[in-house]
Amino acid sequence: xxxxxxxxxxxxxxxxxxxxxxxxxxxxxxxxxxxxxxxxxxxxxxxxxxxxxxxxxxxxxxxxxxxxxxxxxxxxxxxxxxxxxxxxxxxxxxxxxxxxxxxxxxxxxxxxxxxxxxxxxxxxxxxxxxxxxxxxxxxxxxxxxxxxxxxxxxxxxxxxxxxxxxxxxxxxxxxxxxxxxxxxxxxxxxxxxxxxxxxxxxxxxxxxxxxxxxxxxxxxxxxxxxxxxxxxxxxxxxxxxxxxxxxxxxxxxxxxxxxxxxxxxxxxxxxxxxxxxxxxxxxxxxx
Length: 287
What we know:
alpha/beta
């Protein structure tokens, strides 16, 4: 079964035709159009890819709040839509079955089938970039929760401080431990979060220490509640490698002194995860 897969981001759309073994052909990137042209740009990209091969379905991974069961993109600040029935619109335009999936859930699906979480039934996928989102896998399946928002650990309060968060709360994990937060709190916007993590001056050490403490606190609570086997961290912050993972593993171990903590590993698939996850969602439309 060959499908068209698109990972729609706020800046770029990454698309390809993907075979069932994960092999991608006709891979291409296009800028994500601004409103009111966003949907038309997505559909044109998908149609162009479908025309390049004999495809059976389409998978669309999009950001924001997504009701994948109803096929509705509920809300996205960056893309400027609300309660958009994107699945139905795409199916009518493309003449193919369409799966709509949250981009972070798509990444988790991909890591589960092709990446760091292969064979793992209970894990957390935590991409850390401009913000922090997450997807919980329980018993081999992504867990949605009552409103489809399970895994939003980025807005869990952490015992580090009470800085305001864009969500309206104070002291959220994302406020201290996202890649954007590290750069903002260090005060050097020309640097990356990986640069901040590897810096050795006192300001950087404080910012990084508080980020590690915040992550360890949130992951401790998650571990106590759901007992995962694995925590997979992706996104830009994961590119810091051992500068992130070694102190984070140590901090998590120190907080969970009475039991073995879950393994904490780097995601394997990088920027291809969302596209692969969109393909997996499309494959699941047919036996």
